[in-house]
Amino acid sequence: MPHVLIVDDDTNTREALAEITGAEGFTTAVAGNIREAQEQIARQRPDVVLIDLKLPDGSGMDLFNDIEARATTEIVLITGHASVETAVEALRLGAADYLTKPINFKRLKALLSRIPRTVDLKEEIGVLRSELRRLGHFGQMLGAAPAMQKLYNHIGRVAPTEATVLLLGESGTGKELAAQTIHELSLRSRHPFLPVNCGAISPQLIESEIFGHEKGSFTGADRQHKGYFERANGGTLFLDEITEMPVELQVKLLRVLETGTFMRIGSNQEIDTDVRVVAATNRDPEQAVQEGKLRLDLYHRLNVFPLRIPPLRERGADIELLAQHFLDELNAAHGTQKVLSPDGLACLSNYHWPGNVRELRNYMQRAFILSDHTIDAAALAPVITTQSPVGLTLAIPVGTSLADVDRKLIYATLELCGGVKKRAADILGISLKTLYNRLEEYGPYEPGAHKGTETPMQGGTDSYH
């Protein structure tokens, strides 16, 4: 039976927490200060520790370093003096969550329900994950490069907590896979993981999709609809391209994050939700704030634990690892045994992959179709040279704003593709909807008006960073 340690100097609070945790199937021990808590930890290692922030002989956070086997002990900070800074610091130290006084017992029960009941199983899973990580596998993610190992370390630390995560990175780097890995390594893994692309939903429908609506609340609402926050209850909601969400809807999102409640369209009844939010953007969020695309208060609320996903060009040998992985998937799906030749691997490794992992996956699928048995440079070269800007670079002066870089890259790619927006979106690694949004912001593409921004590529390397 799992064991919980309750550390609080208020007798009534200790008794109430002991009653609730006992009813949830935990054995309990209590302490009124840090010294008593240390004695209890020495007697029996707890699976969960509920720690009051302010104790007679110090801060509850001082107890963090006294708890061994932190990978198998969930720490929840309890405070009557909540602040964003305190909560963020607790989460970064390794707390799974924090509760404010008076304690929301419904939220506490939801948290306790996610605690694994078998400690030995947790330790075995931890060992298995360490071995897989060494081999380049981490949850849904694949890669052994130092940049990826650093990312895995950060994900491993933040996943078991309730911290809101903001994923930053270029299109095609695998932000959704990172979000799914965070979910799978969290205490919410048995509950839904729902991804939402904010740039792919019509502005007229996105509020209904996220929060739901009642029957008859607007024309065409012929039945009640449960939104993503309701369907993801207990799990994780991944909000991709968060800067594409209408600003007026960002206000409602902020309220849900702060209160844990929302209302369907056409209703005045509040609904409780227990959802962890992971957001992502391929833009510079601070630039998006300056441009009015992202509310500053929402940015601060989402930016509790930012994570940068490295582009493929910074991952070295991962290109070969990923290419072989995609080929293995294709062989398994089609019952074939096609192989990559050494010159084919070299062709892939020498390319700078502006569309990142998504672009590599698409290339491997095209080369697989074009090849009989061996995928060599001859099979890959036509794909690369005709479908991507491998022969061109952009000359970007130092000091150019990210918005201008984004605009120039989009126009140059459209120029290369002869104005075919679908092909340009594929190369850029963004959805067609996002490309249209950017063109609406930057102004329409005019054929021939943007020539002269490209220069010949020397040696097939990337000239902008």
Question: Strands, helices and their partners?
Answer:
Elements: E1 3-7, H1 11-23, E2 27-31, H2 34-43, E3 48-52, E4 54-55, E5 58-59, E6 74-79, H3 84-93, E7 97-100, H4 105-113, H5 119-134, E8 137-138, E9 141-142, H6 146-158, E10 165-168, H7 175-184, E11 193-197, H8 206-211, H9 228-231, E12 236-240, H10 247-259, E13 261-262, E14 271-272, E15 276-281, H11 285-290, H12 296-302, E16 305-308, H13 318-334, E17 339-340, H14 342-349, H15 356-370, E18 374-375, H16 377-387, E19 392-394, H17 402-416, H18 421-428, H19 432-442, E20 454-456
Parallel strand pairs: 1-2, 1-3, 3-6, 6-7, 10-15, 10-16, 11-12, 12-15, 17-18
Antiparallel strand pairs: 4-5, 8-9, 13-14, 19-20
Helix pairs in contact: 13-15, 14-16, 15-16, 17-18, 18-19
Distance between the termini: 54 Å
Mean pLDDT: 82
Rg over C-alpha atoms, rounded to the nearest angstrom: 25 Å
| CATH superfamily caption of the largest domain | P-loop containing nucleotide triphosphate hydrolases
Q: Work out the count of structural domains.
A: 4
CATH class of the largest domain, named: Alpha Beta
The poorly predicted ranges are 385-391, 451-465
Major sheet: arrangement of strands: 2-1-3-6-7
CATH topology of the largest domain: Rossmann fold
Shape descriptor reads globular
InterPro entries: AAA+_ATPase, AAA_lid_NorR, CheY-like_superfamily, Homeodomain-like_sf, HTH_Fis, P-loop_NTPase, Sig_transdc_resp-reg_receiver, Sigma_54_int
Keywords: ATP-binding, DNA-binding, Nucleotide-binding, Phosphoprotein, Transcription, Transcription regulation
Pfam families: AAA_lid_14, HTH_8, Response_reg, Sigma54_activat
Modified residues (4-aspartylphosphate): 52
